[in-house]
Amino acid sequence: MYASLILATAQAALVTVAPGPSDNCPSSAQVLAALEFHAPALVTPGQNRDSASQTTLVLSPALATGDFTFFLLDRSGRVKLNRTLPPPDGDRGRDCAALADTVALIVDRYYNEVELPPLPEKSAKPEPMPSAPQEVAHAPEPNRQVEAGRYALSLGIGRRMPGSAADLGGNEISLIGGMAVAGFGGHGGRLWLETSAGIVGIVYWAWPQGNVTAVRTAWGLSALLAWPAWRGRLYAGALTSVEYLWLDATSNSHLQHETRLAPSAGLRGGYLLFLREHVFIRMDLGGSVAIVRYDLATQSHSSMLLSAPRVYATAAIGVGISF
């Protein structure tokens, strides 16, 4: 029994990949295949190996952030090397294999530059396996256009519909700030919180005896689920806002001033397209239902009524930066 144990230790590989779930990205099998392709001497059992140089490669995907971490542990369980890599954003089959290549190259470099064990001369590399394309020879550059930062700031203009003066529609302008608060899934999904504030509409109506001006300002909060898509992010979620209306009417030298406060709730979605690493444009479409609805009639022109619509939609476009 002891002789068999000594022989197994003497002929052990320098790197052993710990088994893990097959749906990890990359999986243990993909990383082992990448090591066999890029550094076969590390995973080939051989005699007269220094047991102090033998390590176990443990893969640890982080479900909360989507990041991928791996560790090299020695025979005593001490960490010899650890690295954290960003999650893949494109085709899962191709990018998981590329991520496995990255792990293999980092481990190979560690043994060549840090451990410096007595390795046998590398044999000719076999033909590349489908899971490890030959053209991937370096660490993949993450899609920084999709995950350029966890914070975003943008300025948008839009229009609320119905859009006539009587139903308080019109053009809008707002400043939007966003923050990624959590990750989900294995494809780079993130939960974003966004807050917005600004002048969300100006209505002007005139008749022969006078005129009325209504200015709408609002503060909004959205909880959005975002997924990487093409060169940006696709997002959708819930929104709520509180609207403040300031009205001034003039007729035959008679002045009227009124204010209203009204909350609303609804859904919004859109797409954020990166033009450069940190610069993007965004397109939004939302629908809301007024929780509190109000009507305004001027004292000098009672037949003219301004109304907050019960249900309305908003379309907007904007530009911003991510950091």
What features would you highlight for this structure?
323 residues; mainly beta; Porin; 8-stranded antiparallel β-barrel; 4-stranded mixed sheet; rod-shaped; disordered N terminus
Brief rundown of the structure:
This protein has two domains: 2-115, no CATH class; 151-322, Porin.
Reconstruct the topology from this structure.
Layout: H1 2-10, E1 15-17, H2 28-38, H3 40-43, E2 55-61, E3 68-74, E4 79-85, H4 92-115, E5 151-161, E6 170-184, E7 189-207, E8 210-229, E9 232-251, E10 254-274, E11 279-290, E12 295-298, E13 301-307, E14 311-322
Parallel strand pairs: 1-2
Antiparallel strand pairs: 2-3, 3-4, 5-6, 5-14, 6-7, 7-8, 8-9, 9-10, 10-11, 11-14, 12-13
Helix pairs in contact: 2-4
Query: Under the CATH scheme, which architecture of the largest domain would be assigned?
Result: Beta Barrel
Shape: rod-shaped
Please report which band the strand proportion falls in: under 5%, 5-15%, 15-25%, 25-35%, 35-45% or over 45%.
over 45%
Oligomer: single chain
The residue ranges in which pLDDT falls below 50 over 5 or more consecutive positions are: 1-10, 132-147
Q: Class of the largest domain in CATH?
A: Mainly Beta
**Fraction in helix:** 10-25%
Computed Rg: 30 Å
- Give the strand tally: 14
- The chain-level structural class is mainly beta
- Amino- and carboxy-terminal Cα gap: 60 Å
DSSP summary: helix tally: 4
Quote the CATH topology of the largest domain: Porin
What is the residue-averaged pLDDT?
A: 78
Largest beta-sheet details: 8 strands, antiparallel, barrel
Please trace the helix and strand order, writing H or E for each element: HEHHEEEHEEEEEEEEEE
Count of domain modules: 2
Largest sheet, spatial ordering of strands: 5-6-7-8-9-10-11-14
